[in-house]
Design a protein that fits this description.
By secondary structure, this protein is of the alpha+beta class. The protein has helices spanning 12-22, 61-80, 111-117, 137-148, 160-178, 181-189, 245-264, 279-289; strands at residues 34-38, 42-47, 83-89, 98-106, 153-156, 234-240, 268-272, 296-304, 325-327. It folds into 2 domains: 12-122 and 316-327, NADH Oxidase; 137-304, 3-Layer(aba) Sandwich (NADH Oxidase), CATH 3.40.109. It is built from 8 helices and 9 strands. The chain is globular. GO terms for molecular function: oxidoreductase activity.
Length: 342
């Protein structure tokens, strides 16, 4: 959709609704490392470095993936409010934490984005074992298209050796994390050690993590597992052709798009990044799993069908919108009115 950069004003109620839904985006350890600045005519998305994890995420890779997911959630939420967006990514080379500016255009929304907004509140990271019923090629193709629309490629692991190589790389990443005191402390801090409006609470982590394909990086929580010890999850890889800041941001947008599309199809998902947080295991995935050292794996997507009768997941906590939204409206802003996402 080609939109002019001249931006019309959007009401405060719509901005707050969209910002609140953007805050539902997935993020590393549910750190929610973003800030929004509203000028009254544009929305700026900034990375919040105070929420970066120096041990787990020293490069800020996970931070940018998280910001990308929030950016896509924000675009979808605005589209559902009939607000189109023209996005400038990294608009100021002197401000690398200013990851995007959204120019807003009422009555010019992308209907495909608007459709995904309804899945934002229904999407949850599901770390439980999945049913053995396989996902269909139609499901995979729908997720591929969702990711491709945001500039990334979703790759299936068709060869048995590729699946085994990915599991081996995951096991090596788990071993490295277990022997790193700083990473262990960060994981503990952000996974139930303190109750709050961020982090991963115990009721989002299985009580019995045994058999979960790809593993669970957190200590056992309180979430009940189905009695069947098998796990029928499939593993997909989200990859990009480059590994610069823009590519990582776009990978986050693609992740959001794929997760929301999966939610509309009734699929359960969990994004996994630990195996790609270490240079050596990331290289191993590119070389041994993808057989192409020139591509850059960004996220592993664990996907499948939830078990019949599995309890509904409790939404993980999120920060209040006023915690990350700065509102400095232009003098010409229209009076705010009620708004809601259909």
């Amino acid at each position: 959709m080609n939109l002019p950069r001249t931006t019309a004003a959007v009401g405060r109620g719509s901005i707050r609704t969209a910002a609140e839904l953007a805050g539902r985006a997935p993020s590393l350890h549910n750190t929610q490392p973003w800030r929004l600045h509203w000028t009254g005519r544009t929305l700026q998305l900034w990375a919040d470095r105070t929420r970066q994890l120096p041990g787990t995420d020293p490069e800020g890779r996970g931070l940018l993936l998280s910001c990308g997911a929030a950016l896509h959630h924000l675009r979808a939420a605005l589209a559902a409010l009939d607000v189109g967006t023209l996005v400038d990514r990294f608009p100021d080379p002197t401000e690398p934490d200013h990851v995007a500016t959204l120019h807003l255009h009422p009555d010019a929304a992308d209907p495909a984005l608007a459709e995904l907004a309804g899945a934002i509140s229904a999407r949850h990271t599901d770390r439980r074992r999945f049913t053995e019923h396989p996902i269909t090629e139609a499901d995979v193709e729908a997720l591929r298209l969702a990711a491709a629309g945001e500039g990334a490629l979703l790759v299936t692991l068709s060869a048995p050796h590729a699946h085994q190589e990915l599991l081996a790389a995951m096991a090596e990443a788990n071993r490295l994390a277990a022997h790193d005191p700083e990473i262990a402390a960060e994981t503990e801090l952000w996974s139930g050690a303190f109750a709050g409006d961020d982090g991963v609470p115990p009721d989002a982590v299985p009580r019995d993590p045994a058999g979960v394909i790809g593993g669970v990086r957190y200590s056992p929580g309180t979430l009940a597992q189905p009695p069947d010890p098998s796990d029928g999850a499939s593993l997909l890889l989200l990859v990009t052709n480059a590994d610069d800041a823009r590519s990582r941001l776009r990978a986050g947008e693609a992740l959001s798009s794929a997760l929301l599309r999966a939610t509309t199809r009734g699929l359960a998902c969990a994004p996994l990044t630990q195996v790609l947080e270490y240079p050596q295991t990331r290289r191993a995935v590119a070389k041994r799993v993808l057989a192409d050292p020139a591509v850059h794996p960004q996220v592993v997507l664990r996907i499948g069908w939830p078990r019949s009768g599995a309890a509904a997941l409790v939404p993980t906590p999120r920060r209040p919108v006023d915690d990350y939204l700065d509102e400095v409206p232009d003098p010409g802003e229209p009076e705010p009115g009620p708004s809601s996402v259909p």
